[in-house]
Amino acid sequence: MKRILTTALFFCASVTGFSAHALEGETIEELRAVQLYSQDALIEMINANTHLDKVVADRCQLVQDIEARANVLKVPAYQFLWGDMLAWGVCVDAEPARGIGYMEDAANQGLPAALEQLGRYYAKGTLVQQDKSRAVVYLREAAALKNLKAQIHLVELFLEGYGSPYDYEDAYHWLYNSVTNDKKQHQKIASYLARLEKLMHPKAVREAKRPLDS
């Protein structure tokens, strides 16, 4: 028969890295299902866009822990997660302005996913006013950090006429050296490279086809 957690067990769970915010009557086995995410695990979830689903699947029990790691410890991945939760009202009341602020904090610490998402939001006018010039700035930073989604979005903006032609070579270089097992994405990349190539000097194209880090 499952034993109900006592106050002491709540404390022990917190010390050993589990959430101390279990629901009343929850068992040890159920509490173990909501162990706090490591930064690496959280980044993997963010890159797969499953981070908000995970918070909901964990029955919103980690809200206070997530907020603390974002607000007090200032862990970039948790700043992004907390910002996304606030932006869309996941397990908390929606506060889009605060959410964007936390995403910006994560971006300022160099988290590629935060840079990419802010760039995408400004490109599309999601939550913020559409500003494609600002989108280019965010996406270029994320693209330089090898974020494939940012590399693709950046070239899309270049093909629409935004950004500087001086950046075409870098964008081509990053996307040319990208790796993906998604056939549709692979075809899209090939198409974008062919279109961008037409806007570039042949010498710049040759330079852009060099291997990464060379």
TrEMBL record:
**Signal peptide (residue range):** 1-22
Would I find Signal among this entry's keywords? Answer: yes
Q: Has keyword Signal?
A: yes
Q: Name one Pfam family in it.
A: Sel1
Classification via InterPro entries: Sel1-like (IPR006597), Sel1_AlgK (IPR050767), TPR-like_helical_dom_sf (IPR011990)
Which top-rank group of organisms is this from? Answer: Bacteria
* Keywords annotated in UniProt: Signal
Name of the protein: Sel1 repeat family protein
